[in-house]
């Protein structure tokens, strides 16, 4: 039996940075994923694409579906920045199918926003609106007026892009009434004014 006792001052909390480094050394896919996020933030999309691709391969090898969904989502973001919309859609749809299987409604909603934005950038306004109307229904069912107002504002913008000022005005009026119900008088007036302006155009 040893009689040497570890001195009290040598006992302390684990260094969180060192613990994180040790964890990442054991999980290269996660390391690549986090590295890709940093590169993406800096605008280094080519390096981010490589990191997310490597992470995706690593997650696939481990059968980590959540990792595959996250890496696919981020690869979609990189493709959007590079204006490679077909590849972005493919990645978003892969992430979407995993989230749907897992019944992850929060992630599905986030992906729907991205896919609708992608369709809008491509000028496929009807496809974008179809997704946005599904989102309105979700926000209505979950009683989320903030989400509903955000999405309906985008729908009004899409109607304007399509040249349908009447429907855009109706949508702005609906947004105005939601704000009015929640005593957001200034916002209600702004959207009512937008509706009026469109009707007079």
TrEMBL record:
Keyword Cytoplasm: yes
Major subcellular site: cytoplasm
Residues in TPR repeats: 69-102
Renumbered residue ranges of the record's region Disordered: 1-36
Basic and acidic residues compositional bias, start-end: 15-36
Keyword line: Cytoplasm, Repeat, TPR repeat
Gene Ontology CC annotations of this record: cytoplasm
UniProt cross-references to Pfam families, sorted A to Z: SNAP
Cellular location(s): Cytoplasm
Family annotation (PANTHER family): TETRATRICOPEPTIDE REPEAT PROTEIN 29
Annotated family: Belongs to the Rap family.
Name of the protein in question: Tetratricopeptide repeat protein
Lineage, opening ranks: Bacteria, Pseudomonadati, Thermodesulfobacteriota, Desulfobulbia, Desulfobulbales
């Amino acid at each position: 039996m040893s009689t040497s006792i570890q001195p009290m001052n040598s006992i302390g909390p684990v260094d969180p940075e060192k613990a994180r480094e040790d964890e990442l050394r054991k999980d290269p896919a996660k390391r690549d994923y986090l590295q890709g996020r940093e590169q993406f933030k800096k605008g280094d999309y080519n390096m981010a694409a490589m990191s997310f691709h490597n992470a995706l391969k690593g997650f696939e090898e481990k059968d980590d579906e959540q990792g595959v969904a996250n890496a696919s989502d981020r690869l979609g973001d990189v493709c959007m920045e590079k204006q490679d919309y077909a590849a972005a859609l493919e990645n978003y749809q892969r992430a979407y199918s995993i989230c749907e299987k897992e019944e992850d409604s929060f992630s599905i909603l986030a992906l729907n926003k991205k896919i609708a934005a992608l369709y809008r950038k491509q000028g496929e306004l009807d496809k974008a609106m179809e997704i946005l109307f599904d989102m309105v229904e979700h926000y209505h069912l979950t009683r989320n007026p903030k989400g509903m107002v955000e999405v309906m504002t985008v729908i009004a913008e899409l109607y304007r892009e399509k040249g349908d000022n009447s429907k855009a005005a109706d949508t702005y009026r609906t947004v105005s009434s939601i704000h009015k119900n929640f005593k957001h008088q200034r916002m209600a007036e702004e959207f009512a004014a937008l509706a009026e302006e469109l009707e007079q155009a």
